Structures are given as structure tokens and as C-alpha cells.
Amino acid sequence: MAFKHFVRDSWLTASYYTGLSQLYHALAGRKRGVISYHNVLPVSSLSAFDTYNVDVTASVFDKQLTFLKKHFRVLPIQELENPQAQGLFLTVDDGMLNNYEILAPILEKHELSALFAICPAMIDGELPHIWRDHLFLLFQQAQGQEIFLPINQYQRPFKITSESECLNSLTRQFKKYVYENQIADIYGLVRQICAKNGWPYAQVMHDPLRYQFMNWGQIQDLTKRGHRIASHTMTHRVLKFLSAQEKQYELAESKKRLETQLNVSVDILVYPYGSMAEIDNATVSAAKEAGYQTALMNVQQHSLSTPHFTLPRFAFPPIADAPHLHAIVSGYKFLFR
Ligand SMILES: [Zn+2]
């Protein structure tokens, strides 16, 4: 595996410096693309936990934007729905405080704008954290202790060692459990885990830049500075596992609450997670029914046939390596799958 990666990376580097990947882009590469970001953090705030590769340092983010502007056209987010607009768009998911404090100022330094995907119930503090962050923070707090989890019906305790790999692997196991059991009431499950372990169900105060949400004033300020807001559903549950009624609440209520709070119209949905594991035809229909015009996924390819409601997106790994980034944006890298 390591050797295969080495060969691929060497090939990408050679392709970049000989101009092959630029030629590929000019002839057959991606003409339009949407990039997804989550968190931009100071080095001191980067956690060892990043199973989903969603955190990048401020300095790498800055370099990635410099790279994008040099080699591609990054378009104003207002052009997203224009099918003629050829270039790249930037999106930022989940609405964490770092988006306002760190990410947006770097975007603006580069004169770029983005679409921010927000969960209104989180902004209103109806839930302490997105469930995955919450579990990670609870596991982190319980390092060195034995804890009880639903993975084995709370029978055998898990000993959490202090290695970050243990936290990552536990979080992955937990995600598998949730998807295999198609759990709709994921926050009920987090509550139950807290109860079984004698923990309060409350916000874990830890690194506000990474784990706290922006407030309404900050989000409104982003809209005034040329950015746009999308709904990311009310509570970031897995839409596919929800009943029709719950889907409507997640989709229609979030749209309404964002529009009321921000006094802008919200016509774009960013599906939480955004892969085929979370989105099916019923989910797409529910998004249309809730009044959205456009919806964004988190994969490049899928088997759904409603283009406006399943726009693909891709993400960068947290690196500033130009050959690698170029191969991702142009699509050249995916020839080697
Ligand atoms: Zn999200």
C-alpha cells in the first residue's frame, strides 16, 4: 500500500512539473468544481483526532487558496447556480467559531467568498454538539477509564487508552454501529451513553474555535461581507434514516429559521455527510419539497439522477503540496483509482 502511494505520488509530482497534469486539465479535466472545507485552526488547536480529515491549519489553508487562485478560477459564491460559470466554488460546513475568527478573514484577504452550511438548532444551543464531536470529546475526557457503550449492548467495558488511535478507532466503530443500525435518534443514543456512564449530557467546554458554533450575529455578519448561507439541516442527523416527518422538520424548519434569523433567502441545502450512505431518492424529494433549489453532496460520483439536487463536491487533504492539489482539482488523480 505504502509503495503504491509512493509510486502514485512520484508520478503526480512528475506530471505536474512536466506540465502533463495541466495539459490533462486543459483537455479533459474538471471545468467546474465545488470544494468543501470544515475547520481552519491554529497549529496549537489541531487535535490528533481527525478521522474524517476535516481540520486544516491556517497556514496550509492560506497556501491552498494561493495555489487555487494561481492555477484555477475561483468564482464568487453568488455564481454557484449559474450553469455557465466555469470555475471553482468554496463551501464551508458546520458553522464552527473558527469559520468566523480564522477562516473568513483568510478568504477575504484573498478576495474570495464562500457558502457556509449552518445547522440552526446548533446555533440556538438546542443540542450541545454535533453527535460525532460530542462522543469524541466524551471519549477524550474518559481517557484511562473504562466506559460502557452500545456497541456491545453496554455489556463489557471499553478501556480507553491515551493514544489518539484508540479514540479514532472507537469513533469509527461507533459510526459503523450507527450506520448498520440505521439510527435515527442519534442524540437520544448519545444521551443514553451519558446516562449509562454517569456523565452529564451537556456541552464539553473544550477548544471553542474547534467545538463551539458561531452565533447569529457572526453568521449575519458573514452574509453582509459577501458570503452566503446554506442549510445543513437542523441537527446534522443522517437524513436517510429519518421518517418523512422528521426529514421535513430537518429540511423545512432549518430553512425557515435561517431565513427568519438572517433576513436572507436560503435556497441551498448542503446534505450532512453527503455520500450515498446518507442520501437516497426519498431524501432528494424531501429536499425539493422543502423548497430548496439546489443541494450539494460530498462525493464526486453517485447514482442519483437529479443534478441540481446532487451537485458533487470534493475536499482537499490538509496539505499544501501543489502537484497533489493540482491532480485533485483537475481530476487527474482519479484516473489512478
Ligand atoms: Zn457537516
UniProtKB/TrEMBL annotation:
Coiled coil: none annotated. Residues 86-337 form the NodB homology domain. InterPro entries: Glyco_hydro/deAcase_b/a-brl, NODB_dom, Polysacch_Deacetylase. It is found in: Secreted. Its main location: secreted. Keywords: Signal. The keyword Signal applies. It comes from the Bacteria. This is Polysaccharide deacetylase family protein.
